[in-house]
Design brief:
The complex is a heterodimer of chains A (about 120) and B (about 375). Helices cover about 15% and strands about 35% of the residues of chain A. Chain A has about 120 residues and is α+β, with helices and mostly antiparallel strands. Chain A has a 6-stranded antiparallel sheet with strand order 1-2-3-9-8-5. Chain A has a 3-stranded antiparallel sheet with strand order 4-6-7. The longest helix of chain A has 7 residues. Chain A is globular. In chain B, a hairpin with a 2-residue loop joins β18 and β19. Chain B contains 8 helices and 19 strands. In chain B, α2 crosses α7 and α3 packs across α4. The N and C termini of chain B lie far apart (about 65 Å). The radius of gyration of chain B is 21 Å and the shape is globular. Chain B is an alpha+beta fold.
């Protein structure tokens, strides 16, 4: 699977696409492959404050539990409610399946993240 | 200065086949094993609805033979091996003097005075040291052999297992009853077929010489494809056995938990004269224990997993030993040790998951029971 160039990535395997100061966050195809079948995603409530580099949720596959790390600092404006019933979307469409949207506290934070080419180098693809 | 300790992982004779099939390989009990091929859920559900093919060659084998072989087996295992006829198999415990599990195992009676024990991969060295020493306490003249490297083991499991395996062997599989075995040729390879497994589904385990394992594996894979058979890894093996409430040594049973605590009284030969752990187990059966293994089901969206604390009325009362979201039942289930007063199905408990208490309820085991087939 190709890694879209319309967004930035973290070495912890999250992606973030920023439009008008709102960041949309998900996990990468590489991350979902490592996790296997996702069965449960635990996310913060709308209004929660996320801090760059801190844990904001967990994602569970049949075998493993993994933590979700916030790529940037900001306040949650929306949570993907579909994931409660369709957690497998993370596996089938990782780059279209978002988890939370947040309002960036420091819009320049995103500049520090890596682009698709650099991320693919991280995962050795 | 830090010293790098690297232990080479052992490979089964089917390692190349797994890599060629695109399996994700992981370390397990000192072995490099396939954890999944197409995905745990797909593999799990294939075994429930059609068939799955598993490489379980990492399992160990120890043979006990010669004068006093039955005495030795009776002494080192919990179940009553005197009930075994030639060709029959028994699930049992390899018990310590404290009645706890050094391991759990299958005991095959191969001949009048010849037994084969199938033991867990990660315990082979420990078990071998234990068995070879303890067997002689009961029968000084008995021979014990670690024959783990002489056997490859392939499991074919699922409602279509018999039909598929029958295309590759002249052995009449309908004549092999649950927990019995027969010798014969499978894909033209001389071996042993048993109606056993670790999935809660009908199925067989095929024991063959390691060098011939790829031949048998490829033949079964090819013959099984039209029936919906797919290769299945350790991930599905774990979720399948948990649905069937089969204990996993290292999780649900170990050297700190007794056979009675594990609620496995049926694998104790209560009329046996002397065996390791006998006194403790009889005392626990008579007087009770402080904890017992139970099944639970989460009643809210959360997954209790191994090591999570169990609470009741605000107090920690136990610990989860296995837990997952199961692909077939689509429920979060698990096993935990709790005080016997809480073992009644319907009892509400809470499980602490990452700092939060989630609700669960005690349920009867097994969680899954296969439908009766009219074969």
């Amino acid at each position: 699977m190709s890694y879209p160039t319309d967004r930035k990535y973290t070495k912890e395997h999250e992606w973030i696409r920023v439009e008008d100061g709102i960041g949309t966050i998900g996990i990468t195809d590489f991350a979902q492959q490592q996790l296997g079948d996702v069965v449960y995603v635990e996310l913060p409530d709308v209004g929660a404050s996320l801090v760059a580099g801190q844990v904001f949720g967990t994602i569970e596959s049949v075998k493993a539990v993994s933590e979700l790390f916030a790529p940037v600092t900001g306040e949650v404006t929306a949570v993907n409610g579909d994931l409660a019933n369709l957690p497998g979307n993370v596996n089938s469409h990782p780059h279209e399946t978002w988890m939370v949207k947040l309002r960036l506290a420091q819009p320049l934070d995103v500049a520090a993240l890596i682009d698709a080419a650099a991320y693919q180098a991280v995962i050795g693809k | 200065m830090a010293e790098a300790v690297t232990t080479a992982l052992k490979k089964t004779p089917l390692h190349g086949s797994h890599v060629a099939l695109g399996a994700r390989m992981v370390p397990f009990g000192g072995w490099e094993m396939p954890v999944e091929y197409s995905g745990i859920s797909a593999e799990h559900n294939a075994v429930r609805t059609a068939a799955g093919l598993f490489d379980v060659s990492h399992m160990g084998e120890v043979e006990i033979a010669g004068p006093g072989a039955l005495d030795a087996v009776q002494y080192i295992t919990s179940n009553d091996a005197s009930k075994l006829q030639i060709g029959q198999i028994q699930y049992s415990g390899l018990t310590s003097r404290e009645g706890t599990f050094v391991d759990d195992l299958l005991v095959y009676r191969l001949g009048p005075s010849h037994y084969l024990l199938v033991i867990n991969a990660g315990n082979i060295d420990k078990d071998w040291a234990w068995i070879s020493a303890r067997a002689k306490e009961a029968a000084p003249g008995v021979a014990t052999v670690n024959s783990s490297s002489r056997y490859a083991l392939i499991a074919i499991q699922g409602p279509k297992a018999q039909q598929i395996l029958q295309t590759q062997t002249a052995i009449d599989l309908t004549a092999i009853k649950y927990y019995w075995f027969a010798h014969g040729e499978i894909a033209a390879v001389r071996g042993t077929v048993s109606r056993t497994g670790y999935t809660g589904e009908d199925g067989f385990e095929v024991m063959i010489p390691p060098a011939m394992a790829p031949t048998v594996w490829d033949a079964l894979l090819q013959a099984g494809r039209p029936y919906g058979l797919i290769p299945a890894g350790l991930g599905a093996r774990d979720t399948l056995r948990l649905e069937a409430a089969m204990r996993l040594h290292g999780n649900d049973i170990d050297e700190t938990t007794t056979v009675v605590e594990a609620d496995l009284n049926w694998i104790v030969g209560w009329n046996k004269a002397a065996f390791l752990g006998r006194d403790v187990l009889h005392a626990q059966k008579a007087k009770g224990t402080t904890r017992v293994l139970v099944g639970f089901e989460m009643t809210e969206r959360a997954i209790g997993r191994q090591g999570h604390p169990v609470f009741h009325n605000g107090h920690q009362v136990g610990t989860v030993t296995s837990g997952t979201q199961t692909p077939f039942l689509k429920k979060a289930i698990g096993m935990a040790y709790v005080p016997p007063a809480l073992k009644t199905p319907g009892t509400a408990i809470e499980i602490e998951i990452r700092g939060r208490l989630a609700t669960a309820v005690i349920v009867p085991m097994p969680f899954y029971r296969r439908p009766k087939h009219t074969t």
